[in-house]
Every structure is written in C-alpha cells, then in structure tokens.
C-alpha cells in the first residue's frame, strides 16, 4: 500500500487552511490608538483618537527631546453612534484603527452628566479588541483638548497619563485609578456609586500643543489630576474637591499613603505652625447598627504612620506629647470624614457603599432604606479614629528647639 | 477488543468534563449565588454518575448499546440505539458549532465559520479513525498541559490582585428555591450529565475493579475545578458584569496584568478551551460511531466519515450563534437532554435492579429445596 502520494497531497493542502488569511493584520497597516476621548455635540458623539506615529518614537532615543515630528497625531470624527463615529474615522486615515493598546478613555463632563455612561460602557465592553483595563477619566471642558497636550519626559501622552494616575495612586491615596471593568461594575451596583478622577489642563493649552513647547524648560501648560467626579447610577452628579476625595478614601478603606497636615495644638488657628503626618498603613472598618429604626454607621479608622515634618516646638520624645499629637491628627481626619459625608448626603451619592454594608448586615433595614426616597438621610455616621505615630524618623526633637537654645546666650 | 488503562480514563474524564464549561457562568440567573447552583449540580450529577456506574458494573464488558438491547428487547433496543446515536452526534455538533463561533467572536472575525468547523471535524475524525485506544492516549498526553495551564492561570489571577471576594456576598439572599430551580435540570444536563457517554467507554477499561473509584475521584476533582473558576468569574467581574458577558472567563483572563508585561493572555485560555472542546466533541463523535457500528455492518472508517459528515452538516442548522445558544441552554438542557441523561438510564437501572432482585429471590427459593 503506497501512502506517500496521499500524505504529500495532504501536506500541501492543509497549509492552505491554516494561514489565517482572512484576518491578517500587518503592523504597517495599523494605526495604534493610545488614548480616546468622547464628547457630545448636539445629537452627535464626537470621538477623538490619539494615534501613535511609530517613526517619531523609533528614531529618537531617550524621552523628552523635541524631534522634528510630533510623536502622536489626533483626529476627531462624529457620528450618531460611537461606532459610526469610529467608522467615519476610516474616511480620513490611511491605516486601520487598532484599538487594543488604548490605555485611557476621557469623557467630558457634558457627556457624563447629560447622556450617562450606559451606551459608552456597552460600546467599550462589547468588541473583542477593546481592553477592560483602560483607565476612565473625566474632564470639565472639551475632552479632546486633553489629547493635544504634549507631556515632557514622555512620548505618548496617553500612556503618560496612565502612568501619572498609577504613580499618584501609589503616593497619594485620594487619587484612584478606575479601570473600565470596575467602573462598569460600580455603575451597575445599586448600592454604591462610581467615582472617576478628573483630568485638567492648567495653563495655556495652545502653547503646549505645539512641538516648540518641548523646547523650553518651562511648560506652557500641564495636564494634572484634579477633583473626583461622583456618579449616581450612570450619570455624573457632582465633584468632590481634594479634601472630600480624601474623606472618601478614608471611608472606603483605600488609604495607603497620604500626608495629613495638622496644627500644633488642638486650638491652633491658621497662623499656627503646621506639621505633617505621613500615613503608612491604614484600615477602615464599616459596620452598621440598627436602633429603633435608625441606622448608625460605625466607621472605625485605624491609621499608623510617622511624623514627617514639624514646625512646632515640643518634646517629641515624650509619649504624652505624642498622644496629644495623635489626638489632633484624629480630629483632623474626623473633620474630613464628617464633612465629606455631609457633602455626599447633599448630592445623594453613596460613594463609600454604605448601603452595601447595610444590605449585607441588616437585609431588613436595607429593604426599608431602598424604598425610601433619600436613603442616605436616614443614616448617621459615628467615626472612631485611632492614630498611631510609630516614630519620628531620623530626628527625635524638632529642629526649631535648637534655634531657641541659641537665642539665650 | 481495545484496552484503556486507568490513567487514560482519569485524563479522559477530567478533560471531557472540563470541555468548554469554564468559559460559561452556569447558574448566573441567581446572580452571586451561581456557585451554589454549581454545588447543587455537582451533587446531583454525582448521583447520576452512580446510576451509570451501577448499570455498567452489572454488565462488565458490554457497552451501553449492548446493555440496552439485552434488557429492552431487539425492537425497543434498536429504536433507543438510533436515538442515542443521534443524541451523541448532536452533542458533538453543539461543541463544534460553539467553538467555531467562539473563534469568530474572539479572534478571527472574518474567517469563514464553515472552514473553522471543517478543520475541527476533520481533526476529530482522524483521531476516531485511529480507534479508541489512540484517542484515549491523546487525552492522556494532553492532560498535564491542560492542568498546568489552568493552574498557571489561577496563579496569575491571584497575582494580579483582581479578586474581590466581597462580591459573592450576600449568600442566598432569596433562599434555596431559586437556586434549585436553576440547578435542576440545567446544570445537571450541562456539564455533569454528559458523562453518560462514558457508558460507551467503560467496558474498554482493563482493570474493572478500579472503574468506580477512578471515575468518582476524577469527577470530584473536575467538579472542584469548575466550581473554582465559577467563583473566580463572580469575584473578578462582579455578578452584574458576569451576567451580561458572553464568555465570562475570557473576560476575566483579559484582566490579568502582572508587572506591565504579563497581560493579554486570551490566546492561552482559548487554547485550553479548545483542548476541552476537542476531547468532548470527539468523545461524543466516537460514542455515535461505536453505537452505529452495532446497527450497521460497515467499516469503521466509513462510519467515521458518515457520522462526521452528519455532524458537520448539522452544525449549520442554527442560523446564528444567538439561536444556537438559545436552543442549547433554553430548550435542549431543559427538555431534551434530560431524557437521555436521566430518564432512559434510570429506567434501565430500574429494570436491571428488578431483574437481579428477581434472580436472587429465585435463587433463595431454590436453596431450601
């Protein structure tokens, strides 16, 4: 039995099937998107892409140097649906838009407030190329403006923004990087509210969007993280400022690294010298109590850290002094937490997910609350804050005490 | 007669049960309690497995079609045999179409479905034309890679810190009833009841005494594995997102991000799923071929071609993936598959039990005399 002709025939035919010719994508026919923004104009979606220009990144080594070519290019398209807007993009690009490396998605305040994010989430969760790990950001003005700003030290501003968020989340707990998938889950959760950081441009936008901007050491404009946008279901309802976003971080057990500035004494006014306490470890426990139909939320915060800086004159080696300092810090945190809670109540968003806790611990009380029109008004909070200053770093007495000694002779 | 050993049976049972199951979130109708549905299905499936093993143990060396014929007579036996051949082929086709569509949705949107499925059916047909032994050896060979793959995914998921176990709370908010309604019969029919096809293979095992133990242990192992991935999906994606996602595990795996370079691992999961799908569709295909061999006397090769062509042809029945999934999950699992997985085997077991009980009575009646 001669099998060879058959086998050779098979070897020749099989490769025809496994080439994947139908879905071939050549690198040089793609335009890789690094950031996307969505605006709304009348009844149209305006989608703006920041596309990486490979030649501009490849030719130079090291970051920041101004080349002859901008590292990214931007184009905006519009359409009745987001997909249509993207489709229209192919009318003006020479290459196929490739979405898999998109790292940030910027929504304008107008879209988030008026349209809601429902359709946007549907669109970004649906196609296979879109990544659930992209970061979501909000902006108060036109979202596409942010894509134009060139960032020093970085080639691709989309990736740079992502790194800014990552970096500041690590060093400053009030900022939170929210991934598309977590954002979608928070928006869908009836017992919690989503929060999204704001990205803003400060300075002269025009100046920073030209290549010459990178030639001078001082930037005309910078991109920076600002306030925190809070959602009720799929719509943006308000902004929390820096202090309030810290309060939310305390309430939702997200504090990992944070500086707390506090006065020397409990009665200290504005002109008093200030000190800094650096939180190294913190935990927040939420638990609910029902008494006579009233819901009380116990917020137990346990913060440990070090004294990082002080302008006060005191003996830091004395445990009593340290205990006093701890009390003052606890008072500052308490103030932040309470004022944040009052603010959240007025805009009626449950950012820390109190209802979730009540749902878990007291399902009956939760049912009552869920039917109420203003469920948050029926919850009172009772913060219990413990602060522990573990050490005072490399010096154990304030430097200012030396100055006093020198005065005397 | 072709022989398989116990390691091959273990590998086959585990790969077969894994199939494409991890990809779906079974029992998601009850949101965060989906995993309890899985537990219920697992326990109920264990009872079914006991039933099948009982049938097989009383008839060492006979396969399912021979047992049917022996107890139900030539006519009924033949009719049921034909039904089972169709059922096996249909199950095989469901896997074929499913994977074709998965590939279309996730990786190769423009590649013709017909070609994807043709490649799969040809591959399975080739394995079957080599016989039972070869197919089981293939499973034994692929087993360590698959288990390693799933274990690695599990570690990476843990490493990327995306598990939020609090999303599983609150447990059994609406009581046990909705959970049982979800579990019976849907989760039993898919995947646990599908093990009925092993009635075609158990007779090939060389160590008959080990059959029960090996089967039950493999079943429990795979049950825990499926449960684990079910829980992971809920904890990673949140019940809300899980419930709207076509392939939850695929999405969970896409969230893995370690040290800015270990990410976008979706091809890995697709590869693992394909191993499962290949084993499952080939096992059903083989079941249909072996069954048909009892009914018509033509060579194995021709049977393979005929059944393969039938499976390939049937896979075009559904006009689209949505219809295919709807038919499978909303119709077949509730009304059709339980007939083959529960009703007929239970009937058969009852007949066997009565007969053996009768025999014992007769023996006892004879003894005193």
From TrEMBL, chain A:
Q: Where is the Spore germination GerAC-like C-terminal domain?
A: 228-392
Membrane protein topology class = Lipid-anchor
Residues forming the Spore germination protein N-terminal domain are 23-200
Q: Which UniProt keywords apply?
A: Germination, Lipoprotein, Membrane, Palmitate, Signal
- Where does this polypeptide localize? Membrane
The family annotation for this protein states:
Belongs to the GerABKC lipoprotein family.
Listed name of the protein:
Ger(X)C family spore germination protein
Source species: Paenibacillus cookii
UniProtKB/TrEMBL annotation, chain B:
Ordered alphabetically, the record's keywords are: Germination, Membrane, Transmembrane, Transmembrane helix, Transport
InterPro entries this protein is in?
Spore_GerAB
Protein origin, superkingdom: Bacteria
The protein's location, in the record's own words, is: Membrane
Q: Where primarily located?
A: membrane
* UniProt key word Transport: yes
Which PANTHER family does the record associate with it? SPORE GERMINATION PROTEIN A2
Homology family: Belongs to the amino acid-polyamine-organocation (APC) superfamily. Spore germination protein (SGP) (TC 2.A.3.9) family.
Give the protein's recorded name: Germination protein GerKB
Q: Which organism is it from?
A: Paenibacillus cookii
From which lineage does this chain's organism come?
Answer: Bacteria, Bacillati, Bacillota, Bacilli, Bacillales
């Amino acid at each position: 039995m001669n099998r060879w002709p058959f086998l050779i025939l098979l070897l020749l035919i099989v490769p025809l099937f496994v080439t994947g010719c139908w879905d071939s994508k050549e690198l040089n026919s793609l335009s890789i998107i690094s950031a996307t923004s969505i605006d709304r104009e009348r009844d149209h979606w305006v989608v703006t892409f920041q596309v990486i220009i490979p030649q501009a990144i490849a030719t130079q080594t090291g970051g920041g140097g101004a080349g002859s070519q901008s590292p990214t290019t931007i184009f905006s398209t519009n359409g009745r649906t987001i997909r249509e807007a993207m489709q229209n993009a192919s009318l003006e690009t020479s290459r196929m838009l490739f979405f898999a490396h998109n790292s940030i998605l910027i929504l304008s305040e107008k879209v988030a407030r008026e349209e809601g994010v429902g359709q946007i989430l549907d669109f970004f969760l649906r196609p296979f190329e879109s990544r659930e790990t992209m970061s979501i950001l909000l902006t108060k003005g036109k979202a596409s403006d942010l894509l134009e700003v060139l960032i020093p030290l970085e080639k691709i501003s989309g990736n740079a923004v992502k790194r800014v968020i990552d970096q500041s989340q690590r060093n400053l707990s009030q900022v939170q990087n929210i991934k598309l998938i977590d954002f979608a889950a928070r928006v869908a959760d009836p017992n919690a509210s989503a929060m999204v950081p704001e990205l803003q441009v400060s300075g002269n936008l025009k100046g920073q969007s030209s290549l010459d901007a990178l030639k001078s050491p001082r930037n005309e404009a910078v991109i920076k993280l600002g306030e925190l946008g809070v959602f009720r279901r799929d719509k943006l309802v308000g902004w929390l400022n820096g202090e309030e976003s810290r309060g939310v971080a305390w309430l939702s057990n997200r504090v990992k690294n944070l500086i707390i500035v506090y006065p020397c004494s409990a009665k200290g006014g504005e002109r008093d010298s200030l000190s800094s306490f650096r939180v190294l470890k913190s935990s927040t426990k939420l638990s609910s109590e029902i008494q006579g139909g009233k819901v009380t939320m116990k917020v137990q915060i346990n913060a440990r850290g070090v004294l990082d800086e002080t302008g006060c004159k005191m003996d830091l080696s004395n445990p009593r002094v340290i205990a006093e300092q701890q009390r003052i810090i606890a008072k500052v945190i308490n103030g932040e937490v309470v004022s944040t809670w009052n603010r959240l109540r007025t805009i009626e968003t449950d950012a820390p997910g109190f209802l979730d806790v009540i749902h878990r611990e007291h399902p009956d009380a939760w049912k009552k609350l869920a039917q109420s029109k203003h469920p948050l008004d029926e919850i009172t909070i009772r913060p219990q804050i413990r602060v522990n200053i573990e050490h005072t770093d490399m010096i154990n007495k304030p430097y200012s005490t030396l100055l006093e000694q020198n005065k005397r002779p | 007669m072709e022989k398989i050993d116990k390691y091959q049976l273990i590998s086959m049972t585990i790969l077969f049960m894994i199939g494409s199951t991890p990809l779906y979130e079974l029992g998601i109708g009850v949101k965060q309690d989906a995993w309890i549905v899985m537990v219920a299905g697992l326990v109920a499936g264990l009872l079914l497995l006991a039933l099948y093993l009982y049938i097989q143990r009383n008839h060492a060396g006979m396969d399912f079609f021979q047992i049917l014929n022996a107890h139900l007579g030539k006519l009924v036996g033949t009719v049921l045999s034909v039904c089972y051949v169709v059922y096996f082929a249909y199950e095989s086709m469901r896997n074929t179409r499913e994977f074709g569509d998965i590939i279309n949705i996730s990786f190769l949107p423009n590649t013709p479905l017909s070609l994807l499925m043709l490649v799969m059916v040809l591959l399975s047909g080739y394995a079957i034309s080599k016989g039972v032994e070869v197919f089981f050896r293939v499973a034994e060979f692929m087993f360590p890679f698959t288990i390693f793959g799933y274990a690695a995914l599990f570690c990476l998921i843990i490493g990327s810190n995306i598990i939020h176990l609090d999303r599983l709370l609150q447990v059994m908010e609406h009581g046990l009833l909705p959970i049982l309604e979800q579990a019976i019969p849907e989760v039993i029919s898919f995947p646990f009841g599908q093990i009925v096809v092993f009635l075609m293979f158990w007779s090939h095992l060389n160590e008959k005494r080990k059959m029960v133990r090996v089967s039950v242990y493999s079943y429990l192992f795979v049950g825990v594995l499926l449960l684990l991935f079910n829980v992971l999906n809920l904890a990673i994606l949140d019940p809300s997102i899980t419930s709207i996602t076509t392939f939850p595990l695929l999405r969970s795996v896409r969230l893995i991000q370690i040290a800015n370079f270990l990410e976008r691992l979706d091809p890995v999961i697709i590869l693992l799923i394909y191993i499962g799908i290949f084993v499952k569709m080939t096992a059903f295909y083989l079941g249909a071929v072996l069954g048909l061999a009892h009914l018509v006397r033509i060579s194995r090769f021709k049977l393979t071609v005929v059944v393969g062509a039938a499976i390939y042809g049937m896979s075009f029945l559904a006009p689209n993936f949505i219809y295919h999934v709807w038919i499978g999950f909303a119709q077949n699992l509730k009304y059709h598959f339980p007939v083959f997985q529960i009703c007929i085997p239970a009937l058969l077991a009852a007949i066997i039990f009565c007969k053996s009980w009768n025999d014992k009575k007769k023996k006892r009646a004879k003894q005193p005399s």
